[in-house]
Amino acid sequence: MLNNLRTTATAIAATLSLAVALPAPAHAWGEREQNALVALLAAGAIGTLIVQNNKRHRAAPVTRSTVPTYTGPNYGTSRYGTPSYDTPRYQPPAAQPIPQGVSTTPAGRAFNTYSLSERRNIQSRLARAGYYNGAIDGAFGPMTYNAVMAISRDSTGADKLSTLGGAFDFYDAILRA
Predict the structure, then answer these.
(1) Residue 116, number of CB atoms within 10 A of its CB
(2) Do 52 and 114 fall within a single domain?
(3) Of 69, 134, 135, 155, which is the most exposed, with the fewest CB atoms less than 10 Å away?
(4) Residue 111 has pLDDT above 90, yes or no
(5) In what residue span(s) does the Peptidoglycan binding-like domain sit (predicted)?
(6) 127: closest CA among 172, 174, 176?
């Protein structure tokens, strides 16, 4: 405390001595020089007050007990299990069951009684309707059977192809269209 009082008194005495001693010969100076001297004295006095104020409000020294310590995050244990992957299994597309020997069905027997050009014409018309995408060869195989059953189901009903007469009526209608 005594040391702070002594420093403050010394600063005030120095400022007053400059304020009293310097302006004496300054009356011969111009107004600009006198204003500069006043500004210098004011800056010295303000600087002294700032230094003294900083000394008074200096923060207390930091001790080890007040230093915050870092603790890392606590992630805990994982809530998730080990990932597993099931290998996908091939699932064949669901198709209409094709009876063994499709050419022995009433639809196949009726189809095979037509001439080769008529059978190709039937396959061409099934392809144009979007039901057949095989070769236009005039053979009654699984693709032709599926196409005939699909178009029959969509138009007249598949039960018409269960008899030989119904199959002939069906193919005749396709050839006339």
Answers:
(1) 10
(2) no
(3) 69
(4) yes
(5) 117-150
(6) 174
